[in-house]
Amino acid sequence: LYRKATPTTLPSFLLIGPSGSGKTAFLTLTERKAVAQTHTSTAPLGVEVLLPEDYMPQSSHYRSPGDPAYERSRRFLLLDTPGHGKLRHFATKQLANPANVRGIIFVLDAASVAEETGLNETAEYLHDVLLALQKRYTEATTSKGPKEIPVLIAANKMDLFTALPPHLVTQQLEKAISDVRKSRAKGLKDSGRTLGGEDEDLDEEREWLGEGGEGSFEFVQMEEVGTTVTVHGGNVIGGESADVKSWYEWIAAQL
Ligand code: GTP
Ligand code: MG
Question: 48 C-alpha to center of ligand 2: Å?
Answer without folding.
Answer: 16
